[in-house]
Design brief:
Strand content: 15-25%
Order of helices and strands: EEEHEEHEEEHEHHEHEHHEEEHHH
Pfam families: PfkB
Keywords: Kinase, Transferase
Distance between the termini: 34 Å
Strand order of the largest sheet: 4-1-9-10-11-12-13-14
Largest sheet: 8 strands, mixed
InterPro entries: Carb_kinase_PfkB-like (IPR052700), PfkB_dom (IPR011611), Ribokinase-like (IPR029056)
GO molecular function, one term: kinase activity
Protein name: Sugar kinase
Number of helices: 11
Radius of gyration: 19 Å
Length: about 350
Amino acid sequence: MNKVVAFGEIMLRLSTERHLRFAQAKTFTATYGGGEFNVGVSLVNYGINAEFVTRLPQNEIGACALREMRKMNVESKNVIFGGERLGTYYLETGAGTRGSNVVYDRAHSAMATIQKGMIDWEKVLEGATWFHWSGITTAISESAAEACLEAVKVAHQLGLTISCDLNYRAKLWQYGKTPSEVMPELLAYTNVVLGDIDTAFFMLGQVKVDPNYEDLKSLPVLYSKLFTLCPNLKIVATTLRYSVSASHQRIGGVLFDGKSIFNAAIQEVTPVVDRVGSGDAFMGGLIYGLLEYKNDKQKALDFAVAACCLKHTVSGDYNLVTLNEVENMLDGNVSGLVSR
């Protein structure tokens, strides 16, 4: 039986209501979320056993975050406690030609002040088959990056499949190191990577490239270089997002397995309810697809794209859709009719 362990930070999300600007807001809607936790929620919704490992402050807000994990049926038995605060982010949801805006308030959070050695990774990963991390964790602090590297090394030693969503966030890399100083060592152990080719090259300290994702014949050369730079790499996938406006997105995807390129048809998504967490929905769908459709990478990619599209219709960080709903979209059911 598959078990996926994800490592990262769960945050308090404070979002304005009804597309208000920050300056207009008198109240904020409080929910929770975070890249790696969002992936865990998706997997649980599809019937995969998922565990989330993080560090929480030992106060009422930390207790609320833990309760949220339990509410979403994501295993939390190896969560550790310490630090002063839960990381927070503020979201101003865009509409039409005005994009959304995120303000982070996560400096010195419980997760940002985690230290390597605090988690017994051999114990945590016992019985697991997959380990997931992202570039967000390595961006929040040097000690969080060191703890992530510690986890990745143990996961590699135990023979787990290791996945990473590159998730470059320029606002977060503020502790004095660049991605190219941190990411290459972690990516050297990683088997499945989700991210843009140009972002991957940037994080690996390579010369900037400008890939044309519509020219499928040109992509294998670029993707192959990533396989050379990351010796344990088996799969690279990229979410294709063409933003018509904040309310209208066009979503597709590309996957390369070292030999063949796979392409998913572009889907029109309008109106957009909430695009935050849609990349995590793609990642969760991709992990599920690779686990369940081992010999059908096209179907795995199509599942990830469908999951990503559906997330745009759901408010909040989590992709609260069922396996049946994703499969219905794969079968061409995009009418939105009431299910009676």
